[in-house]
Amino acid sequence: VRFFERKKAEKALTAQQKLLNGASGTDREALQQAVTDAEHDLLYIKHFPRHKKYLALYPSENGSDPYVVKRRARIRAAIIQRSAAGTLVSGGDALEDEDADEEGQSDNLDDDFFAVEENAEDAVVGQAVAPAAQVQVEQPIKQKRPPDGSAGVGAAKKRKKRPAS
Known about the structure:
This protein is mainly α. It has a domain at 2-97. The chain is built from 5 helices and no strands. The chain has helices at 2-21, 25-46, 66-85, 98-103, 118-125. Belongs to the EFG1 family. Residues 90-109, 134-165 are annotated as: Disordered. Keywords: Coiled coil, Nucleus, rRNA processing.
């Protein structure tokens, strides 16, 4: 889906750029906005987060689903914002924390885990640790061969060679 959408977006971008090059004064502003939108579409396709299910820009079905439209707009706005800030990484890996930002779950500083005081951490680090001499490493169990010299249960049997005829 991404490949075909990228081809559509690239084709639309080149068409808008050709129209912009041959446009006059008043139409030029509208065409410049169309070129910018086409560039943003291309950024959306190229930098969509890889860990999420891709939401098509040009859907054949469910195009007016409000949930999909809202998510697409959020992700597109985040990609455009990061592109403008210059923090956009190729491949969509930069948006892996998008879920946490969208849903407001990035409040790790309020978590009790992070509220440990420095003195308490030093006390835990200063506790005695078990000496390495007391740790025993288990040796792997070696399988014994049966006394008849065969390979044992479950081993493949050797085939006898047939004389050439």
